[in-house]
Write a structure and sequence with these properties.
Distance between the termini: 21 Å
Strand order of the largest sheet: 4-3-2-5-1-6-7-8
Number of domains: 2
Enzyme class: ligase
CATH architecture of the largest domain: 3-Layer(aba) Sandwich
Number of helices: 16
InterPro entries: Folylpolyglutamate_synth (IPR001645), Folylpolyglutamate_synth_CS (IPR018109), Mur-like_cat_sf (IPR036565), Mur_ligase_C (IPR004101), Mur_ligase_C_dom_sf (IPR036615), Mur_ligase_cen (IPR013221)
CATH topology of the largest domain: UDP-N-acetylmuramoyl-L-alanine:D-glutamate ligase
EC number: 6.3.2.12, 6.3.2.17
Helix content: 25-40%
Family: Belongs to the folylpolyglutamate synthase family.
Pfam family, one: Mur_ligase_C
Structural class: alpha/beta
Length: 439
């Protein structure tokens, strides 16, 4: 076990709950560390149910294309913890190295003095310490859960805030309606900082606009203040400053057009000096693992049916299922193939709500468990739910590898398109088993 892994294991034991939304413990630790949160670069703070990471990926790519040094904080990680903290550097940011990570975690552990604090809170303080000690032009900051009481919300004066698509997820912590969840996400809005409100349902948008006004945050609302559309194989973005004729994003799926638009709107609001050429380059360069990521080689691909396309996505809620199904339908229109879905989910997720979007689209569902600390839906129950949603051919398997072997034995009329989805933890396990690297 590496030194930082040992420290991370100890930090997991400092609080009886994995999630306990509060700002007090984070502020206490930051005070003991000399308030690194007051020495951060200009910050864009991002909340939302879906699309946070992709929006940040676009922002990072665009800013780096303009020659900016960009710190990034995201969660959860997929393969190793270092993925959560990216330090800005000339020519592009780099994941924090093991030595610096171990040193800052040890400093935070000592400053905390064994007091109760959640893992996310103490590691957020560690990230802030690193960001404060390493100069950069921008910090892109993703909330962990919610917004109002998320430990990242100790930031008092962001340059801008963004709330991406809001839908039902983490209801045990944030509330059981879209309105309640939107209220929690809106907690990141701050006086004077433009509030970019991404494409929303009417219910969510109504709450977000109300809370932005209460906070004194200037509104920049998708569908009102900025628009995006695909036209002749190009991405057209339009706001009061004019029209941008851009290439389609590298990240596949029409939902990424909206995430890209969120990023562009934020930059137009707070960094208007970023040239259109950097925005174009960012669209072409942005990467975000396990979000409609095509696996082209590796052990998992080797298990797949000969000639199959293998796609991986961490989508795990109803809205995630909707955009995934829309993307698969779009792929089918361009290049028809039978679709097979390999699905695993945690019991805290409404897997049936995700599966319903694949009725009439997926030829088959093979359900698998999600390994690790999170309680998984039994594969047999997921298969039964898929059948209840009208997907006639379903099966259960003990692993993704076994699921791919099952699909390899099916008499598809042509090599299938295989989508592995339902959980970020499942996606992480697939990337690890496949030998994939995240840099």
């Amino acid at each position: 076990m590496d030194q930082h892994d040992a420290i991370l294991s100890r930090l997991l034991t400092l609080h009886p709950k994995k999630i306990d939304l509060s700002l007090g413990r984070t502020e206490r630790l930051l005070e003991a560390l000399g308030r690194p949160d007051l020495r951060l670069p200009p910050t864009i703070h991002v909340a939302g149910t879906n699309g946070k990471g992709s929006t940040i990926a676009f922002l990072r790519a665009m800013l780096e294309a303009a020659g900016k040094k960009v710190h990034v904080y995201t969660s959860p990680h997929l393969i190793r913890f270092n993925e959560r903290i990216r330090l800005g550097a000339e020519g592009g940011g780099k994941l924090v190295d093991d030595e610096r990570l171990a040193a800052v975690l040890e400093r935070c552990e000592d400053a905390n003095g064994g007091q109760p604090i959640t893992f996310f809170e103490v590691t957020t303080a560690a990230a802030f310490s690193l960001f404060a000690d390493n100069p950069a032009d921008w910090l892109l900051l993703e909330t962990g859960l919610g917004g109002r009481y998320d430990s990242t919300n100790v930031i008092k004066t962001p340059k801008a805030t963004i709330v991406t698509s809001v839908s039902l997820d983490h209801m045990e912590f944030l509330g059981d309606t879209v309105e309640k969840i939107a209220f929690e996400k809106a907690g990141i809005f701050k006086r004077g900082a433009p509030a970019i409100i991404g494409f929303q349902s009417e219910a969510a948008e109504r709450v977000l606009e109300r809370e932005a006004r209460r906070a004194g945050a200037p509104l920049v609302v998708a569908g009102q203040d900025f628009h995006v559309r695909e036209e002749n194989g190009r991405l057209v973005f339009e706001d009061e400053r004019g029209l941008l004729d851009l290439p389609l994003p590298r990240l596949p799926g029409r939902h990424q057009h909206q995430n890209a638009a969120n990023a562009i709107a934020a930059l137009r609001a707070v960094a208007p000096e970023i040239p259109a050429s950097a925005i174009e380059a960012g669209l072409a360069r942005a990467e975000w693992p396990a979000r409609l990521q095509r696996l082209l080689r590796g052990q998992i691909v080797d298990f797949a049916p000969a000639g199959a396309e293998v796609w991986l996505d961490g989508g795990h809620n109803e809205d995630g299922g909707r955009v995934l199904a829309e993307a698969m339908a779009e792929f089918h229109d361009r290049s028809p193939r039978p679709l097979a879905l390999i699905c695993g989910a945690q019991t805290t997720k409404d897997v049936r709500a995700l599966l319903k979007h694949f009725a009439g689209l997926a030829r088959e569902v093979v359900a698998v468990p999600v390994e690790g600390e999170h309680k998984s839906w039994p594969p047999e129950e997921v298969a039964a739910l898929a059948k209840a949603e009208g997907i006639p051919s379903t099966a259960a398997a003990n692993s993704v590898e076994e699921a791919l072997k099952i699909l390899s034995a099916r008499p598809f009329d042509q090599p299938p398109r295989v989508l592995i989805a339902g959980s970020l933890y499942l996606a992480a396990a697939v990337l690890s088993a496949n030998g994939s690297q995240i840099e």
